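So, can you check these tokens?
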Amino acid sequence: MTIHARIGEVTERIVSRSHEGRSRYLERIRAAASKQPIRKKLGCANLAHGFAACGPADKAELAQGDAPNIGIITAYNDMLSAHQPYERFPELIRSAARAAGAVAQVAGGVPAMCDGVTQGEAGMELSLFSRDAIALATAVGLSHQMFDAALYLGICDKIVPGLVIAALSFGHLPGIFVPAGPMSSGLSNDEKSRIRQLYAEGKIGKAELLEGESRSYHSPGTCTFYGTANSNQMLMEIMGLHLPGASFVNPNTPLRDALTTAAVKRSLEMTASGNDYTPVGEILDEKAFVNGVIGLHATGGSTNHTLHLVAMARAAGITLTWQDFSDLADVTPLVARVYPNGSADVNAFRDAGGVQYVIREFLKEGLLHKDVRTVWGTGLDSYLVTPTLNEEGALSFVPSPEASGNEQVLRPASTPFQATGGLKLLHGNLGKAVIKTSAVKPERHVIEAPAKVFHSQEEMQAAFKAGELTGDFVAVVRFQGPKANGMPELHKLTPPLGVLQDRGQKVALVTDGRMSGASGKIPAAIHVTPEAADGGPIARIQNGDILRLDAVTGELNALVPAAEWAARVPVTADLSANQFGVGRDLFANFRRFVGPADEGASSL
């Protein structure tokens, strides 16, 4: 099937726009590639330090110099449910490497914070910048020049993007991303939302709320709603960095362990001394990023990736813009309904056909680039298989089903849930922003109402509790951008706004902060750029100004006479309270040097 004309057009303009940067990048990583292990160039003292802690057999292999050595970058900690299963992975990987005549070493650990724990707390102001810290920590681990390939163990929000950025910095190395899988299904997402809303209304207490949350987040594994963590997993598969079907296999199962072992074997084949040299920097080209954006739209994925994919692409010498996102959304059908865009969770998505079904449908309709390289081989059609264990317990890949297992969750591209993707670019006299519309009812796609302005989510929550949020309004929560306070997620605002909307009020949110993958039923213009702390137009809004958010036409305007609007001086805010505490003082340079949201909000 020939690629859709609009997708081809967008891809070509990305290639043209990125030509100089991508050429320099490829020249650099190709110069770094070597047919022999790079550690052979190390001095004897350097190499002795590198294998001093190894066992005798591994030490002998590395001393001889020819055995491949896999570097493991792990985001393990046992406070994050998603990352706790990684505790077992290094030994699995080492054993599989030894069985193949190779060595594996943990090259480094990277920080892995949980936005679910820090939500609404001061620690959330470190969250976005943790992506860049993860990239830096990964670079430190790989800088020892001991490795022929890398396995990246990470799942959640900023962790995978940070690992990808670093993997691209070491783009001459082959690399596979190794997931740990989602937890089994617990309390339904609809019931969880109902309980949260009851608590916001004061109808239940904290004990009942905690009991509901604990039934939802109940075991090792990734949270099962389709937020940034699970969007990451979809992206790594559709962009060719996972083994086929690896994304959503539950943790601590024989199939999960078999996939981890297979990733080791495949990474050894991909080394420069193997028979299929496949460096990460060659895999993640312009077509791979277009496929990622399309996958995001098709499944109603996380708005955080309007930041992360831009930053990841820049690390590969590719310039990806919000306009590219918007233009691709216009021709990408929404084929998945996974919470918050529906009631199902990612386990149901997997059982309905998962990423393989999306790839099959979109290749059939010419909506994905097939001619790409992946860690599994050449051609995205190599991902139309499902991993399983045969009668002997060995891993095998069988053709994935052609039909959806549940059309309430996953539908054909020819009969989608909606004709276009769930993300829209907004622009107007308030700057640029993005909105996720896939969970917002069509009658709420256009909101025109007076502004109620707040400088923190706590200020708005206090107004809700005081009964001050009456009538139709657009909540403006500003000074939440990357320069102001690290661009925290503002999910604490979802329950009160949901309560007001359910009461019949027309409400919307406009913010230079984030709402991420759990962006739900409230129309929310997020990532407003330029941000208030940069003197952006959002800092000119006054209480009572009529704002128009139109997700149909892509309009975001303050309906204020042009002369009056131009004459207004942007307000400032006292941001001293978020400069210290919970490590925020250590991140001052991140806030100082961070770029704008539409360029990835990166400090690197």
Notes: The chain has two domains: 5-184+219-399, 423-599. The chain has 22 helices and 16 strands.
